[in-house]
């Protein structure tokens, strides 16, 4: 039995025992006559392991019987001798015995030990199984010079040797394997295991060089879809039917000659039908992952993308994300990197910040008592970053950085920009976008783009100081529907440039996921900073991801929890200890028997050792399963506690009082993705680890974020786009039908011309929308002189409160651009900029709300005017009446349908443009009337804070306060803010008007092209040329009309 177990562990497939000439062999698949056979060779005395051919395999902790099968093709005589098959006779088909299924938990070894916890559901054992082998005779059958003993299966017994065993009952009874050897001198096989994956051979059967995985690898694409209308079976069926309908239409339209003619109407229809047949409801939604350094953002993204170690973090746990990294989908097995570099102005701003950081540290050193420990540490880290960046960018340009402390900032930055210009030009010339065949190659290059490290051998200089953003294009399921995942530095990053870049990106993203450690989630300052930004910027779609949910200490958990939960944890700890104790007892006895040596073991000891081998395998699996259940229980209750506290803490930031919180473990996910070997599968199946990791739930949530927009796109496709093509084709068919005389044609042409002219006048309505919106903006009280004075006085009065603060606290706020928390403030986060703007914000809050309502009203009127134009155009069809209308009813109905479909699509397109405008307007409101770091007010105050920072020495405190107060009481800061506010609003309205007019003209042209099917003689000729083809198209349209109605009924 050990030999049978050994071979199974190595090959993980069906095992059949069958006679092969002079010796017994293991056959990998009895159904294949060409299968390679492996002789069973006991290990030499004293050498642990079992040898197959020349390959030795070592110890394994467990065994999985999920697909194990035994052949009953060995016959026995009354004396126990083998009866060989008759020569040239057909061998009977082997009878196969099926063991435990892979999805059934393996039972514990001895029921009396009571190893299972009270919550375990593993079955009890009623009767152990005994397999007996005995060596075959070497003298009669062995080949010359062969010294390899061979074995045969002599019996399979359950408990009592008199218990009858039937093949059908074997799988039900098997719970424990006892192994016996019938010959003392045969040697004792030990544990075996496939220690390493061997390369696959070209044969489809397992061999010594080939391992066949038992459990199939988890398929990400087969995971449960989100609970959304788009994924409902009926909707998905309707979508597939609609695409199939278009595929059928493509075949019909491509069966004739007209679609091959350049410029022909049918060619356009054919191309449109192909486009609709390949429809994919891919939308675009950006999800940002943001958090402090080292919390695991990159690891979470690796798991979501199902790419191990793709986005890397450093060995020390610090962040490797110094630029925004976007992950996009593309349908290729290759991976592509595209990088955006700084322009000259952006690079100059970055260098100015670094020079100031280097100089500021020296200022702090000059006043050693003028900073707190955290401030000093942050300043030192900012200087280290500056020094590292300068050395990377300007290698060989200087012997030391002392010149930064000696020369003015402007002179230093100008000199550095001269040095950097060569590198920028070089990057523009050679480009840095690359394509890779493997994820490892792409990951290595990505690290050189996004991490503060030395340049790679293929680069003339380090690239990361010049890169603003990196886009990665790869084939990942979570991206396949249009999601864009963005890895961002945290808002508490020491680099102001990176903080500002993160802030701007968050404002543009559709969803934000804040990443933090689970055990610190409820007090994580990084999480709080994101929600503070969300509050100021009125961002509602913010969720939390808690990492490291696998960090669980069972003893601490038992002490921390009380009552039933503590009792349950204790029971599970005891179950693990009991299983370990029994396993150690078995291993100790095995070690004692091994020390004796195989040659000195008596028959009873050999029997005992063989039994212990099987017991230790199953006990190892039992220990692993109990450990898993303990981890799962602790993780679950701890996750639930953290999720509940976070939801309560941040509920005011969610529109419906509930935020999405996920607890994930990348280690559990890795373990589940790698759980394919039989020993692992026997302990805990892969899906259990994956579910426990929380990554599957998070991936499902991310896909659900885009499901609503996919639903809208797919519904528009089935309800509007397909019927519109059908209506246009109907006009093409009627154009060549010959049912209209010249007078009737002239009548329909006249109506079509009138419709065309009427639609063109609608453009005038949209051409005035920018002016009307600008007029509404001018009514806001932004340029009221009295208000400007009041706002300036309010800002100055606020600064008088700060003047009373201790000089160290005041200086700390200046170094942090007016936003900070210190011991003096009770560690409460305060914002000078918000306090300085408070009067302005209060005065404009209600007027802004009224202004937004007026914008909606203006746009609504424009929509109604456009709709009215279409309705008037449709009314022109009513000019025909009586017999003439009846004769033209087919054409009129088709024209009506075309107009209505185009109208619907135009209104949807205009609505989408208004949504984009609203989002941009919201960002403008945040920039103008909030105190986020990149707002207009805060950017205007940056130079003031920089100037105050550089003050040092005697009287520096008074000079700092004078600088800040002087700037705040100057009305120009608010006057300039209002000017930029208005200028940017005018840019938005001009763009809205331009986009709306362009969209309107595109749709009107589409209507005109459809109407030309009625009045263009070339279309008549094209349609009349091939009567059979036209009739075929007509029949297809009749069938399609029925199918379209059925599909629309489903959605």
Structure description:
This protein is an alpha/beta fold. Among the domains are: 154 residues, no CATH class; 127 residues, no CATH class; 246 residues, no CATH class. It has 34 helices and 21 strands. Strands 14-13-15-12-16-11-17-18-19 form a 9-stranded mixed beta sheet, with helices on both faces. It has a 5-stranded antiparallel beta sheet with strand order 1-2-3-4-5, with helices on one face. Strand 4 and strand 5 form a beta hairpin. The radius of gyration is 39 Å and the shape is globular. The N terminus is likely disordered. This is Nuclear GTPase SLIP-GC. Pfam families: DUF7605, Dynamin_N. InterPro entries: DUF7605, Dynamin_N, P-loop_NTPase. It comes from Triangularia setosa.
Topology record:
Blueprint: H1 2-11, E1 16-20, E2 23-27, E3 37-42, E4 50-52, E5 55-57, E6 69-71, E7 96-98, E8 129-135, H2 138-141, E9 151-158, H3 167-173, E10 177-181, H4 233-253, H5 265-277, E11 285-290, H6 297-305, E12 324-329, E13 335-341, H7 344-366, H8 373-393, H9 403-406, H10 409-430, E14 434-436, H11 439-450, E15 467-474, E16 483-488, H12 496-508, E17 511-517, H13 525-537, E18 542-547, H14 554-560, H15 563-596, H16 603-649, E19 661-663, H17 666-674, H18 678-683, H19 686-693, H20 695-705, H21 707-735, H22 742-760, H23 763-766, H24 769-777, H25 785-803, H26 807-815, E20 819-820, E21 830-831, H27 832-875, H28 882-887, H29 889-929, H30 936-949, H31 956-968, H32 972-1015, H33 1017-1025, H34 1027-1050
Parallel strand pairs: 8-10, 11-16, 11-17, 12-15, 17-18, 18-19
Antiparallel strand pairs: 1-2, 2-3, 3-4, 4-5, 6-7, 8-9, 12-16, 13-14, 13-15, 20-21
Helix pairs in contact: 4-5, 4-21, 4-34, 5-21, 7-8, 7-10, 14-15, 15-16, 17-19, 21-29, 21-32, 21-33, 21-34, 22-27, 22-32, 24-27, 24-32, 25-27, 25-31, 27-29, 29-32, 30-31
Biased composition (Polar residues): 134-153, 194-210
Organism: Triangularia setosa
Domain DUF7605: 786-974
